[in-house]
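Listing S7. Sequence submitted for prediction.
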Amino acid sequence: MRRASRTATWIGWLLLVVGLFAIAINPSVPSLWYPILWLGIMASARGTSMLVSRVAVAIDLALIVVCFVGFEIGGLIVVPSAAAFLVGDALRPDGATHSRFG
């Protein structure tokens, strides 16, 4: 289970790098600040979910909503990475989805 969680998280980071690169080279995006903005949003969400593992899945779900709201500035491109982070956090054995008693 831990290996699947780490694999999903690594895939999420790779998809994020590819998505940020796609936003950066997009000719319709007027500024390079958009990829930096998304990097900041994703890094702060990932940092928070790593510190407070009980709410990691909720943070990832909120991150997906933020990505859909920010679709005009490239949010849809980073949705697959947020979904991979969601899967990785859901598979983590110490996460909020597993019971303490079982």
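Caption to Listing S7: primary sequence and predicted structure tokens for the chain studied. The chain has one domain: 2-91. The chain is about 70% helix and 0% strand.
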